[in-house]
Amino acid sequence: MKILVSCIPYDGGKSGISTYVRETVRALRDAGHELTLIVEPDGAAERDLAGCGSFFRAPGWTRRAPLSMLWHLLFLPRIVKRRFGGFGGFFICAANRRVCSSHPLPTVATVHDLANFRIKGKYSRSRMFYLAHVLPHFARKAHHLVAVSGATRDDMVRFWRVKPEDATVLYNGLPSIPAGGAGKGKNLLYISRIEHPGKNHVRLIEAYGKLPRDLAERHPLVLAGADWRDAGAVRAAAAASPHADLIRFTGFVPEGEMERLWSEAGFYVFPSLFEGFGLTLAEAMARGVPSAASRNGSLGEIAGDAAVTFDPYVVDSIADALSRLFSETPAERAARISRGRERAKMFSWSAHARGVAGLLARRDPVKLFGIPVSPLREGEAVGRIVSLAAERLAKGARPAFVATLNVDFVANAVGARPFGGNGELWGYLRNADLVTADGMPIVLLSRLLGKPLPERVTGADMVPEICRACAAKGLSVYVLGGDAGAVKEAFANLAVPGLDVAGIDSPAVRLDAEDPGVVRRINAAGPGVLFVALGNPKQELWMGRHAGELRAGAMIGVGGTFNFIAGRVKRAPAWMRRSGLEWIYRMIQEPGRLWRRYAFGLVKFSWLSLIHLCGGYRR
Question: What pLDDT sits at residue 595?
Fold first, then answer.
């Protein structure tokens, strides 16, 4: 798959998010995907991700974080639409930091944590406002969200009002870990950027200061990571500690030098106030380094029973956990290491990348007025309909219900004051097996909602292709409704070799007094695809009411499609169909019959769309 990946922000390669970007991009590359990476202008990501794909560099003026957020939010969607429209999907690596206002491609976005809701004053006021009130609105517009832990997904549901089914938990992975080495030293190690208060270094230092001197001397505290926000407070706390001489700051440690740190570590501690995942805790367990960690956020979830956990807000709790960890017998230590290594098997970058690619390939319906409209292109929709037909026919299951949604369907089915609707019809559409967007207003509304459907997929365009696909698979077709002469002319014009037309049935179908012989004739033929040409809403109501009685693979309402194919009614030119102006052409053809329907339909559709854009029909 051709995947566009936003690697912004990369933090110069010195944060947990940059580790996530590196490892996920490499795993996607190793899985055979063709990648184009959107990177910051500082060159750090290009250096670290050389050989992983081609690069698209953000403009130089985005070096400052606020400008980077603005460019990613407002300018990048236009660039994606213009330059990368043929890609299979767009992957945003850090949607808790950068989002897009709209998504021209199927988009999956990873959320690492919502720490700004958990830690007061974690960032500046302006950034906290952006993270709390601007970013969530646009992040929810992605086609699917990834949470790196169950705790993060719970926070997305609570604080962002994300539906649980719209977020998938994909745990982070682990780097390849050399055998032996780690866990054989004496140091107490903590790897994290030096940031106050979120990473909780100060309380860790205070807890370490409470340890007996001889115990602290046996296990010096090593704080590895680059200075970040308010690092001065951490260094001041270390300088004031009674064990100041036993506390060492390493600064940022490059990937190539990390093995030395792990080889000198005998224990690992992760006291952060909140984490979306906690990569280094999982790595410590995989390396066989006994660990202690905060029990809140995701850290307790990641640690399970493999680490000693504590309340990160209580200094005595941290000190007690460290004392317990240092005092374990050899047998207890060995058991803890074994549990940690077993638990670490849950975490794999290749599995994470497979999950992301699977979500990008998945085509979740776009809910419009509560109706699940499939984001499939015409060829994909035809393949899906014929596959459903073959599957349902083989199982003897009820036929798949296929609808082609347009303005007329919405106007007939959906209600909102002062307009009424048809609850029965709306129910059939909401529970349909497949709904396509047969109307440019439907596509345009999806774009305004930030979840764009790729194109208009009409019944008139699909019917010929369905017939060809059915002939190739040995499935028959049956037509109910329409003018029998026009239907025969249409099949003659199509001239599909090997197509089995099992029946052309044009009875006077009435919803209030139906002929049971219609169902018997269809069932005797047992068609793969049943075309119902009764016009909306009659055809969809008929299909919904008889779905449990029919023996067919799939049924689809096609209105006057066979009149178009037969040439009895001329279709609008292709340019009018593409631009959504076909209704004007149709109204000129039959003004007496159609002008009221189109005028009422467009007015009602506009009103319903306004309600939808303001938050209605979300369930």
Answer: 59
Instruction: Please list, in sequence order, all residues whose beta carbon lies within 8 angstroms of the beta carbon of residue 337, skipping any fewer than 6 positions away.
Output: 183, 288, 289, 290
- DSSP-derived 3-state class of residue 35: strand
Other beta carbons within 10 angstroms of residue 34's beta carbon come to: 13
Q: What is the DSSP letter of 54?
A: E
CATH number for the domain whose boundaries are 2-169: 3.40.50.2000
Residues 26 and 51: beta-carbon distance below 8 Å: no
Half-sphere exposure of 269 (CA within 13 A, CB side): 34
Which pLDDT does position 587 carry in this prediction? 64
Where are the chain's structural domains? 2-169, 187-345, 381-577
- Local structure of residue 453 (DSSP, 8 states): -
- What is the secondary structure of 176-188 as a DSSP string? ---SS-TT-S-EE
Quote the CA–CA distance of 356 and 222 in Å, as a whole number: 35
State both tokens at 111: 């959320």
What gap in Å lies between CA 421 and CA 415, rounded to an integer? 4
Which helix H or strand E contains 309, and what residues bound it? strand 308-310
* pLDDT confidence of residue 180: 62
Predicted local confidence at residue 537, as pLDDT: 92
Say if 2-169 and 187-345 have the same CATH topology. Answer: yes
Q: What is the mean pLDDT of residues 606-618?
A: 88
Please answer whether residues 386 and 466 qualify as being in contact, where contact means their C-beta atoms are separated by less than 8 angstroms: yes
Q: Is the pLDDT of residue 594 over 80?
A: no
Structural tokens at position 60: 């130089």
| Percent of the chain scoring above 90 in pLDDT | 73
The pLDDT, as a whole number, for residue 534 is 94
592, pLDDT greater than 70: no
Q: Which CATH class is domain 381-577?
A: alpha beta
Rounded to an integer, the average pLDDT of 597-609 is 83
Looking at the predicted structure, is the pLDDT value of residue 571 above 90? no
**Strands 366-368 and 371-373: what pairing?**
antiparallel
Residue 428: which of 401, 405, 404, 446 has the closest Cα? 401
DSSP letter (8 states) at residue 122: S
